[in-house]
Amino acid sequence: MSKNINLSYTNKKDIKEILNEYTEKKLKLIETFGQERLDGWKNILIYGNNIDALRLLLQNIEIKEKISLVYIDPPFSTNGDFKIGTDRTSTVSYSKKDKNAYEDKLVGSDYIEFLRERLIFIRKILSLTGSIYVHIDWKMGHYVKVLMDEIFGLSNFINDITRIKCNPKNFSRKGFGNIKDIVLYYSKTENYIFNETRESFSEEDINRLYPKIDKDGKKYATTPLHAPGETENGLTGQEWKGKKPPKGRHWRYRPKVLDELDGLGLVEWSSKGNPRKKVFADDVIDKGKKRQDIWYFKDPQYPKYPTEKNLNMIKVIVETSSNKGDIVLDCFAGSGITLMAAEQLGRKWIGIDNSEHSVKVIKERMKTIENCNAYSIFRII
Fold first, then answer.
1. pLDDT computed for residue 139 by the predictor
2. What is the pTM of this model?
3. Of 282, 284, 291, which Cα lies nearest the Cα of 313?
4. Dihedral of CA 136/138/143/148: which sign?
5. Which residues contact 110 (CB under 8 A, 6 or more apart)?
6. CATH code for the domain defined by 15-197+291-380
7. Which of 323, 298, 327 is nearest to 312 (CA)?
8. Strands 294-296 and 157-164
9. How many CB atoms lie within 10 A of CB 338?
10. Is residue 219 within 8 Å of 281, Cβ to Cβ?
11. At what angle do helices 337-344 and 356-367 cross, to 10 degrees?
12. Which of 109, 175, 282, 318 is most buried when burial is the number of CB atoms within 10 A of its CB?
């Protein structure tokens, strides 16, 4: 398989042309809110075109290659307008007087190049331990996947996360119902931050994974006491309780440990005389289960901004791919949920959006956070 994967289209610019394009744009400080941090850092909210903002941020040595995490929820190439009080799944607003929050008019190769230019800057601005999550829909996701393979490298592709966004719908169109979108997760290098976050067991999980009940009413399951691989001379290959491990396998524990487990009542013998270890649900429920690549996070029913995402989902991303004190960037800040999650979890943040309504919503969100750290609003001029 070739290591180089590229999309080809007519209006594709050279990377050097994109990065070296001169701009006379500047950042003008509008106002500052919140409480000063001890380290002097002020979070940043930029009102303006994000390609200009990214170009300016890349010139800042305190920010260039200092960003640990980027989460973006860019336009989905719907060729539509999104009014205040709507989301991407509906064209109906809550009021006929609602104004546009933003436009999503780019389609085809124009959209791909629009996103590509921003991803090129994002990769440059990420730290060597940084990661990016791109939230996109099923119509454009495959194109964006190839685009990110080209920019970040196929070897730095980590996950294609399926996000279940709603309950099943009875749509009339020919085809299966769409209840998901996707989140593409890439790193800049192989040395990326990953803090494992676990999710809670559901009642269904517990009943399925721990189907047995002991005399005390505790739910449990059993697992084999042997593992693949023979050991001719080792203790784990010897006979225990008159039984040797199956051919090609060995006991998972030494005979002394097996005796201890049996003495504690943690060994169950099958009807065929095979020993299995008891694993109780109570011993693992508090630890949670390893998070998989299918996520169930529904968005707010009445969002303050179109495309507003589930706060808990964004918190999972922030906790997984950054540490306290790291910088989180969202250059399609929209509802400000990413910035809110970063603030609540002790991260620094930078938000960029070209919507006046977005800036207004973010300011209102930050007011709800007790002891919110200082942030400055800049406008691109």
1. 87
2. 0.85
3. 291
4. positive
5. 11
6. 3.40.50.150
7. 298
8. parallel
9. 32
10. yes
11. 30
12. 318
- Cβ atoms 111, 143 nearer than 8 A: no
Nearest to 370, CA basis, from 340, 349, 347, 350 = 340
- Report which of 85, 88, 145, 80 is spatially closest to residue 119, judged by C-alpha positions: 145
What residue has token string 């901004």? 305
Give the start-to-end residue ranges of the domains of the chain.
15-197+291-380, 203-283
Sheet strands (E) in the chain: 27-33, 43-47, 67-72, 80-83, 100-104, 126-136, 157-164, 180-187, 198-199, 212-213, 219-224, 226-228, 249-251, 267-269, 275-280, 289-290, 294-296, 327-330, 348-353, 375-380
**Could you tell me the mean pLDDT of each successive run of 10 residues in the chain, 381 residues long?**
74 93 92 94 97 96 96 76 49 46 68 95 98 94 95 96 90 86 97 95 92 94 90 80 88 93 93 90 90 95 90 98 98 97 98 95 96 97 96
48: Cβ contacts below 8 Å, ≥ 6 apart: 25, 352, 354, 378, 379, 380
- The answer to whether the beta carbons of residues 376 and 354 sit under 8 Å apart is no
